[in-house]
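The pair is quoted verbatim underneath.

:::
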Amino acid sequence: MPTLVFYTLLFHLGSSSNLTDKGRWTVVSLIFVTTCVIPVLTVVMFKATRVIRDLNMVNRTDRYIPFVFITLFYVVVSYLIKGQEWLTPLMYNCFLAITTVVVLTNGITFKWKISAHAAGVAGWLGFIVAFQSQFASTNTLFWPLVWSVALCGLVFWSRLFLKAHKPAEIWAGATMGFLVCYAAVVFFS
């Protein structure tokens, strides 16, 4: 989801950065590696070393160690990217919002199995709605909005179909993800 957020931010908001197209793709690639590839490899490593029983992490307790590691990783990346020349305040606020959603989701997981998937996709939707309201004249957000709504529906349905979550867990994750990401842009950018 962070990759989609940064793609949307860099390629669909006209005034979001002064990077060249190559620079924008470099940032999107950096975000993809640090927020997708490394966490996925970590979870696979935890499965291979039998720290977790299965990749689906059906039991809430299986989520603890991978989620703590991923949370720490996001916090470290947030710290390391701060002050980078290419990073605008809007991009940093977006990354902090994403990190906040990860921290909250993972903290809640210790007590209740909230849907991290729903939080992620609804967070992307929250960013798009906020970008539309804050940057109405300099954006091309129609297709990202269509894709984010469709992805929300698909992810919510799949989590229910797979019996990975109950509706309340999905709605709680979606509401939290949407509100945190929307507020980060509207109130702090």
Summary: DSSP finds seven helices and no strands in the chain. The radius of gyration is 16 Å.
